[in-house]
User: What shape does this take?
Amino acid sequence: MKKIMKNQNIKFLYRMTNYFLLVGIIFALMAGSAYCVTLSISPTISLEEGELKLDRLKMAVAGEFFGVDTKLMLDYRQRGFHPEDIVSALFFSGDSQKHLSLIFALRKGEEDWSRVAGILRLPPNAHGMQMAFALTHGKGKKVGLKRKLASEGYIFLSFISDYYRIKMDRLQFYIEKEFTLNDILLAVNLGAHQGISFELLLRDRERGLDWSMILKQRNIQKEKLFLPFKSEKKYKNKPVIK
Assistant: This one.
């Protein structure tokens, strides 16, 4: 009898554990929904197509900023480099005046972009890389970030700051609030097109709206979400590609 009751208690505890795990996962997904980009902006566009459109947006605005043909960047994308890596390589090629292919070769052999910067003798905080470790306020007091990005993530954030002429600390504020780079880029790019503050769009996201809802509520055509904004700002050091 005791053995039967023991087995029943074990089964009950097992079921309750699974129940609470399921509830926890559901709440985690609900809490994170405001910060995860829903790339499927309509029932006719797949997630894969949405990701492709986002990649094209990143490479198009990077091409404008660095004066590089997007076909070249697409070639590196097909080799497995993400747009954030490509932007980092373009920055480093321009800063060091080393050929772009050499920069990518160095990146393949190193753990992260901060090590590549060291090899090229670039400043350790080139394009905000040290923000991946900590922010410093006042007299050297370090304040840990709620969310840390890889070095290429902060370099890409620096690119957004330069290209769209937005102060880095305004963008950093939303990284600390755990918005993704994708959310920030889409908000900044769409805001530049529509002449509205990107912060208003991110507040919409914070309220739990996905991008299709935001476009609908603001009466914006869905094509505008991935349409590259052409800035007059160009990077001072052109990458070496020939």
Residues 23-43, 132-146 have pLDDT under 50 and may be disordered. The chain has two domains: 1-32, 37-226. Residues 37-226 form one domain.
